[in-house]
Amino acid sequence: MIEIEEVPELDSPVLIAAFEGWNDAADAASSVVDHLIKVWDAKVVAAIDPEDFYDFQMNRPVVGTTEAGMRKITWPSTQISVARPPGATRDVVLLRGIEPNMRWRQFCAELLAACEELGTELVVTLGALLADTPHTRPIPVTGTATEPDLADRLKLEQSNYEGPTGIVGVFQDACTQLDMPAVSFWAAVPHYVAQPPCPKATLALLGQLEDLLEISVPLADLPEEARAWERGVDELAEEDEEIADYVRALEETRDTAELPEASGEAIAREFERYLKRRETDEQ
After folding, report:
1. Which Pfam families does this chain map to (predicted)?
2. Do 209 and 276 contact (CB within 8 A), yes or no?
3. What is the dihedral of CA 241, 244, 248, 251, to 10 degrees?
4. pLDDT digit string (tens) for 78-127?
């Protein structure tokens, strides 16, 4: 069982979870949780014991030096933090971890038991996958929800993926088995720039969370980092004619398809996010 530090009673908490590994192309999903931990000044309240879930030859511990000059080993693990976002009507539990190497069902059961202890009312899982999508267009985000009204409110583009899954899919299924309302957002990262980071995909996932939580999330340097990332990929394409031709083909495919990202409704949502963010900055 996960031991949780004593925390004040949380107000209708929602859990936001991301895991490094197979589910996290270009670190786009885990970077969302890292960003939220930082901007919301989240406090770590629990960590899962890694001994039963990780192969330390695959996820090796890291040795370093503390500020006091002492040598310290940090073990791979999954941590739970809590935050009270400014302006939010509910608290947030942040789950930041690494996909386990074994005992996935026990892993999920322990995490969900901790969620229940914290009073979690909704679980949101984040993932990222490599896809045939051009870097010059909005990052597509697909999603699933266990509650039909949630899917309708968020206007999710339902995923039709069938095939192998990772810990995000297993965790989502475990929520369904316990009748825990759950939403999953997946960003599509251009496969020809798979190396991390991909701030444009991180921003796309953050936008979905803003719609879900109905708050404005401080973005810090992410917008400029996303623009710099796109400029860098543009330069790469300019230097390689094959890549440039491939990107143009992807753009043509996207531009001739029905794209929710390009719809008036999507543009309106993005403008609403901008207005909310500006109001928050002015307060």
Report:
1. PAC2 (PF09754)
2. no
3. 160
4. 999 999 998 888 999 999 999 999 999 999 999 999 999 999 999 999 99
pLDDT in tens, 154-212: 777 666 778 899 999 999 999 999 999 999 999 999 999 999 999 999 999 999 999 89
Q: Please state, in angstroms and rounded to a whole number, the distance separating the CA atoms of residues 224 and 231.
A: 11
SS (HEC) of the chain = CCCCCCCCCCCCCEEEEEEECCCEHHHHHHHHHHHHHHHCCCEEEEECCHHHCCCCCCCCCEEEECCCCCEEEECCCCEEEEECCCCCCCCEEEEEEECCCCCHHHHHHHHHHHHHHHCCCEEEEEEEEEECCCCCCCCCEEEEECCHHHHHHHCCCECCCCCCCCHHHHHHHHHHHCCCCEEEEEEEEEHHHCCCCCHHHHHHHHHHHHHHHCCCCCCCCHHHHHHHHHHHHHHHHHHCHHHHHHHHHHHHHHHCCCCHHHCHHHHHHHHHHHHHHHHHHHC
Nearest partner of 226 among 143, 136, 141, judged by Cα? 136
